[in-house]
């Protein structure tokens, strides 16, 4: 399997394209927006430079990696020779279903169709295609070039052969694949999102402030960053969308999103991507700065 197509050139898409290209695969990076593709290539170049600075990559390897990347604004053109397609579009059900309908129409009959979704049912996605046995989840973690885990999600109809091929492919990327079944939130977000939601509830109910909550989890539980800081990095809109999938899919009130989270998303306070969430991200400093609303 040498030809890979990646749908979406945002943070996850360019990271996925980066690791495949670095490990010898020919990669078609696809986005409807050429400016987004240009930005993605620039980001990949900067991330490769960081690897060079750390001594984990040579200049020649950077050149080879970039040489394996080709950009397309047409899905049909980009996937026509793909052995594997990895969809990394926004976490929106209808958008993903429409993408998979298009992929099923244009990708070669033998191609595996994978989604990087962090919560949406692989079974539901597969059902809109004529090849459900070849549809699977490949949930990479952010930042993709650094994080080792790939959560491999089997849909109801995903074949053993496809699952094993994707597990092996993940190992070729230097990742550690973990096979899970297709239930809301899978494993990563079924555990992570309720923790983030509970941290937001603790803030909402006045148990403690933003810094205090994050400090407890960093120093007491050895987390590399606190749950509120992590929520800002993930995107509060993404956290809300995943919690709604969990709440609807499992029918349990414990997954209901905190009203504070709902209000922040409604107000456009989405975290790093908008410049403000629980912290302020627009000051250019590496130090954590609380958003004005949460300062004492």
Automatic annotation (TrEMBL):
PROSITE patterns reported for this sequence: 3HCDH
Signal peptide stretch: none
Site-annotated residues for Important for catalytic activity: 139
Top class in the EC scheme: oxidoreductase
Keyword ATP-binding: no
EC numbers on record: 1.1.1.157
UniProt KW keywords: NAD, Oxidoreductase
3-hydroxyacyl-CoA dehydrogenase NAD binding domain: residues covered: 3-182
Location of the 3-hydroxyacyl-CoA dehydrogenase C-terminal domain: 185-281
Matching PANTHER family: 3-HYDROXYACYL-COA DEHYDROGENASE FAMILY PROTEIN, 3-HYDROXYBUTYRYL-COA DEHYDROGENASE
Family, similarity comment: Belongs to the 3-hydroxyacyl-CoA dehydrogenase family.
Name this polypeptide is given: 3-hydroxybutyryl-CoA dehydrogenase
Organismal lineage: Bacteria, Pseudomonadati, Bacteroidota, Cytophagia, Cytophagales
